[in-house]
């Protein structure tokens, strides 16, 4: 189940598939990324700040988001990597396909986010700064299609659902997002595009390794997203 891009004594770089939960929120969820990691390397269960539910997990991706993650294999690596995420030194870039035509070639969304629980689903909402946490998302247009824009997105912070909430707030929800969605747009497109996941993929990850050397990894779009791109390009 693990798609390992690189492994050394300190960390793993993996390509997480869409549909895989990173870690359980209770002890009930099974077949999570954590389960597969411990099966692959049992020593990982001794790494982290929550060894019961999130061993080895330095950061996370939403269940339906695919792409690159770094997994710590030792406590020293975990602490070193965690600090880089905290200090915003890690490069995290994504591909996203959004509804509509974004006019600007580049943009920055600097809007604080906070939790808003509705109908038993967790959503992030733009709040005033004193009620929420700073969230900064940069985007660049890579290609424009009829009804869609293909973006490269870079996040300076790592808030829950940050990219999804920010792009939805500016009127450009991500194709396939089941939480931040525009049902009217979905109805128009569902006959042409059949995608059972969100079009959001973590394609680039960069950080300093334990020898303080900058390392960077890339992973292209998975096949189902490439197929979607070819369909909308017709």
UniProtKB/TrEMBL annotation:
MF terms (GO), sorted A to Z: catalytic activity, acting on RNA; pseudouridine synthase activity; RNA binding
Lineage, broadest ranks: Bacteria, Candidatus Kueneniibacteriota
Assigned protein family: Belongs to the pseudouridine synthase RluA family.
Name of the molecule in the record: Pseudouridine synthase
UniProt xrefs under CDD domains: PseudoU_synth_RluA_like
Organism for this UniProt entry: Candidatus Kuenenbacteria bacterium HGW-Kuenenbacteria-1
Segments forming domain Pseudouridine synthase RsuA/RluA-like: 10-168
Positions annotated as active site in the UniProt record: 62
GO biological process assignments: enzyme-directed rRNA pseudouridine synthesis
Record-listed E.C. numbers: 5.4.99.-
PANTHER family registered for this protein in UniProt: MITOCHONDRIAL RNA PSEUDOURIDINE SYNTHASE (PTHR21600), RIBOSOMAL LARGE SUBUNIT PSEUDOURIDINE SYNTHASE D (PTHR21600:SF44)
EC category: isomerase
Cross-referenced Pfam families: PseudoU_synth_2 (PF00849)
Reaction(s) the record says it catalyses: a uridine in RNA = a pseudouridine in RNA
Record bears the keyword Isomerase: yes
UniProt keyword annotation of Transmembrane present: no
Keywords: Isomerase
Biological function: Responsible for synthesis of pseudouridine from uracil.
Gene3D superfamilies reported for this sequence: Pseudouridine synthase
